[in-house]
């Protein structure tokens, strides 16, 4: 059985149920429309008007900033590999709707995770101030999105402008909270961060040049499943190697803390994979692909997280 969309990498498989086909009837957006979207896509980590009340070091979560910055960078890396990205950059309306909708969803999920962590670990007074700040930010986010959409009211570009604004505001807010409420880890091992990042990038390139990858481009479910199996096995192997290195280099106290965290992460990884499978049907071929793709995505992301957090 074949599907209309070609599977390129794990992130493509994860988004199969939301992809929108682009046909020759799609209208390309005029340059002035593209310019308005590009104006929203500035360097990540921009700040809001709430910076006047930044927390002190004592009111921040210790040691998680680099890890979460790595997570956020990884999200954009995966979004850039979506099949809609190229067509979106060319100004094709359907692709832009799909891309910005997916991008907003991913960063909104990350924002919720960051906010829940802050809620758990920040001092009560700091969190109370942040809750008020967050309410104002949500109102600003919606107002900005509605304003962007109103410029194209009734047109095909209205939803594109709305989703693009939500995506950029939410992405910026993720970086803002991480930079303002987290500190860098003081616990580092004797390993070069850039060397390991290069190694992780090379794993992805090797997968993309593999025969399994080329076979999966046909969209045949069997080949897609073979690819997701390969991807998960490769990333799981690398994660085990990183974890073994940390076990050798970290103190026993830090390792106990990491073991506890790892147990929780494994449970979350499995839960996410099961939810992905359920969306396509438990036991179905596409459900199995979604399950393996989710495992692969989570494991790849975890590799980057640990490298960002613990390596110099």
From TrEMBL:
Coiled coil: 186-213
Annotated signal peptide: 1-20
Gene3D superfamilies linked to this entry: 1.20.1270.180
Keyword Nucleus tagged: no
Superkingdom, taxonomy of origin: Bacteria
InterPro entries in UniProt: LprI-like_N
Keywords carried by this UniProt record: Coiled coil, Signal
Domain Lysozyme inhibitor LprI-like N-terminal: 85-177, 216-306
Pfam families to which the protein is assigned, alphabetical: LprI
Region of interest (Disordered), ranges: 32-57
Keyword Signal recorded: yes
Residue ranges with Polar residues bias: 32-56
Listed name of the protein: Lysozyme inhibitor LprI-like N-terminal domain-containing protein
């Amino acid at each position: 059985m074949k599907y209309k969309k070609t599977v390129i990498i794990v992130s493509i498989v994860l988004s199969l149920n939301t992809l929108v086909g682009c046909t020759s009837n799609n209208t390309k957006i005029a340059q002035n429309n593209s310019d308005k979207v590009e104006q929203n896509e500035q360097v990540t980590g921009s700040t809001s008007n709430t910076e006047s009340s930044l927390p002190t070091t004592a009111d921040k979560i210790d040691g998680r900033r680099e890890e979460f910055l790595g997570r956020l960078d990884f999200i954009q890396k995966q979004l850039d590999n979506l099949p809609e990205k190229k067509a979106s950059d060319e100004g094709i309306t359907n692709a832009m709707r799909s891309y910005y909708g997916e991008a907003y969803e991913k960063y909104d999920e990350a924002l919720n995770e960051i906010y829940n962590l802050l809620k758990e670990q920040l001092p009560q007074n700091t969190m109370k101030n942040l809750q008020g700040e967050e309410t104002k930010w949500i109102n600003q986010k919606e107002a900005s999105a509605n304003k962007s959409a109103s410029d194209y009211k009734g047109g095909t570009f209205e939803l594109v402008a709305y989703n693009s604004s939500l995506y950029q505001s939410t992405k910026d807010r993720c970086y803002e909270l991480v930079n303002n409420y987290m500190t860098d880890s003081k616990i580092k091992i004797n390993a070069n961060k850039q060397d390991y990042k290069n190694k992780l990038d090379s794993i992805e390139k090797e997968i993309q040049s593999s025969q399994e990858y080329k076979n999966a481009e046909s969209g045949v479910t069997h080949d897609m499943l073979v690819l997701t199996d390969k991807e998960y096995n490769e990333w799981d192997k690398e994660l085990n190697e990183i974890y073994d290195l940390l076990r050798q280099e970290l103190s026993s106290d830090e390792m106990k803390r990491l073991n506890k965290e790892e147990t929780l992460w494994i449970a979350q990884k499995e839960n996410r994979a099961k939810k992905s499978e359920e969306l396509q049907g438990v036991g179905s071929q596409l459900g199995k692909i979604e399950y393996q793709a989710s495992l692969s995505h989570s494991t790849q992301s975890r590799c980057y997280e640990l490298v960002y957090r613990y390596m110099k």
